[in-house]
Amino acid sequence: MTTPANFKSLAEALVSLFGNSISIVRTDRLSGGDINKAYALHLNNGKSIFMKANAKENAAFFTAEAKGLSAIAETKTIATPKILCTGTDEGQEVGYSFLFLDYIEPAIKKSNYWELFAQDLAAMHKADTREFVTGGKFGFIEDNFIGARVQKNSADDSWISFFRDNRLVPQFKSAESYFDETDRAKITKLLDHLEDFLIEPEKASILHGDLWSGNIMCGSDGKAWLIDPACYVGNAEADLAMTELFGGFPKEFYDAYKESNPILPGYNERRDLYNLYHLLNHLNMFGATYLTSVKTIVSEFID
Asked: Is 128 considered catalytic here?
């Protein structure tokens, strides 16, 4: 996969990308996102770029994001913003890390926006994945992040083993203080019998990994573009499940997706297990608000 240039200062990045006469004429702070700060940088050449920034020690957030965007782009199935560069700037007292992407101007959605999005996503899920993981069928070229937390992507030939060992086990370990002895017995039983509830996919798929409405935008072509990925190779059902976790998409999206990439029977039962991962991650990032949802799902599968 293509690796973007990495610079040692914001000024060096701008000059390398746009020439010695470049300067920032206006900076707009953009809303959205709990982890990174976002800005629109308006340049004296008439171009605008999108910048995400975080603490210097969190530079890995942006190199991982760039690799995820690159993986999606290489499938040539669905649009993502063009990656310009990553970098770290020492110019301030504490320094900061940054990611530059093409700035996407707001556009009007096509009348069949959701159907087109579903078809593009299904095509991404059917794309070849061999370049994105080595040493196994499922995983990714390296660990990355789900929100602010590390996401393990160790290669495995079994989707069920991968999901247990790289997704559920690390999250349950981080959240163990929330559970009593009865909870822990249920969790152990669930992990030991995960093959009773999940299935191996007919095909491995490259996943966005964090596919909720906040990580989709309308691009300049009026179609859905993907942003902020937590990419890995897995079961396409996990992406589809995530779309349903926080309100879901319109019915026409799901109808069009299933027409393009049929879902195996039993998905509605498996969906909650896939979303257990994200609810555990929210529990570990944001606290006990998500504990009841986690316990409810565990109890759905283990009496």
From this structure: no
